[in-house]
Automatic annotation (TrEMBL):
Belongs to the ABC transporter superfamily. It comes from the Bacteria. SMART domains: AAA. This is ABC transporter ATP-binding protein. It holds the Pfam family ABC_tran. Residues 5-230 form the ABC transporter domain.
Length: 342
């Protein structure tokens, strides 16, 4: 069975709320794909539809060419963690996993294996009621891994974890992807995904904003600027503008030059006999880029690609590596409607 998650023209409406609005992308095996978007962007809804927990209003999600509900042994095909706290509090960690294993024809020995894998073996017999958030998350991961599945869907797995727990999950996800599994993980934290994901799917208000390798996303969005402190800002500004450098004056009186390098600014200043007190390069943070990309999602819905001055920079880069990144719904959109089974 294939390991690709294939989302085509997926939509979900709850009354007047459009939670997911025509999403199309694929999630490939062998890498961690980060599913990024601000709170309420539609990540959980998309994952719920992938797992057959919610019916699409339109479009479809297939996992390895099948609807989740058509999978014969779902836990062996797809591991998931949506709401980690969704565990009976009176059960022990071991009891919870054993119950899951039994109902999915998974040997009891595997329960011990996954408890060890997530570092819960010492508290295996403790009631889940007393677990910290971190322990609950680990239990959720153990449940996801129980069937040794080739595909994993994890909804905000690092939420509320301490730095050690965050590192642990990050390494685990990377290891699982290195084994050839499909790892699809949602987050609202750009900085975390930059460290974890090989590929990013960014959504806002239910719509696709970017489907790109993390490296491309960082390159496209970490635009640097050169900051110049000079007692002659007007002359400096003119010298830069004359050389074709875009420049603006910041609130503190310093100049910011874009699309150039500190050395060139220094050379231009020197050639014009200008006094400069400071020249430095600054890189916009990824978090800033993410906010810029997703912050005005409402505009993206109606205005199409941004052609302005770059402040509403829209990343539509597709992955050129393997040709799998299709940011927009292609000719296939609308070809099939999700069937309501059952
Ligand atoms: N069962 C539901 N009934 C009504 N509205 C819903 C339901 N589930 C989600 N929504 C709405 O759909 C939108 C998308 O929510 P969703 O939970 O998918 O976003 P998200 O990106 O996962 O954000 P978060 O990280 O905050 O959960 C939100 O406006 C939310 O209020």
């Amino acid at each position: 069975m294939g390991r690709v998650i294939d989302i085509q023209n997926l939509s979900k409406r709850y009354g007047d709320t459009v939670a997911v609005d025509g999403l199309s992308f694929t999630v490939q095996p062998g890498r961690v794909t980060g599913f990024l978007g601000p709170n309420g962007a539609g990540k959980s809804t998309t994952m719920r539809m992938a797992l057959g927990l919610d019916h699409p209003t339109g479009g479809r999600v297939l996992i390895g060419d099948r609807h989740y509900r058509e999978l014969a042994d779902p836990l062996r095909r797809v591991g998931s963690m949506l709401e980690a706290r969704d565990v009976h509090p009176g059960r022990s960690a071991y009891g919870h996993l054993l119950w899951m294993a039994r109902s999915n024809r998974i040997p009891a020995a595997r329960v011990r294996e996954v408890l060890e894998l997530v570092g819960l073996e010492k508290v295996a017999r403790h009631r889940v009621r007393g677990f910290s958030l971190g322990m609950t998350q680990r239990l959720g991961i153990a449940a996801a891994l129980l069937g040794d599945p080739p595909v994993l869907l994890l909804d905000e797995p690092v939420n509320g974890l301490d730095p050690e727990g965050v590192r642990w999950i990050r390494n685990l996800m990377r290891g699982l992807a290195a084994e050839g599994r499909t790892v699809f993980v949602s987050s609202h934290l750009m900085s975390e995904m930059a460290l974890t994901a090989d590929h990013l799917v960014v959504i806002s208000r239910g719509r696709l904003l970017a489907d790109t390798s993390t490296r491309e996303f960082i390159e496209a969005n970490s635009r640097s600027r050169v900051r110049i402190r000079t007692p002659e800002p007007e002359r400096m500004r003119r010298a830069l503008a004359a050389a074709g450098v875009r420049v603006r004056q910041a609130a503190d009186g310093t100049l910011e030059a874009y699309g150039t390098e500190a050395a060139r600014v220094g050379d231009l200043a020197s050639a014009s006999g200008l006094t400069v007190h400071e020249i430095g390069t600054e890189t916009a943070s990824l978090e800033e880029a993410f906010m810029r990309l997703t912050g005005d999602g409402a505009d993206h819905r109606t205005s199409g690609p941004d052609t302005g001055d770059g402040t509403g920079h829209r990343t539509t880069a597709s992955d050129t590596g393997d040709g799998t990144g299709h940011p927009a719904a292609g000719p296939r959109s609308g070809e099939r409607r999700a069937g309501r089974r059952g």
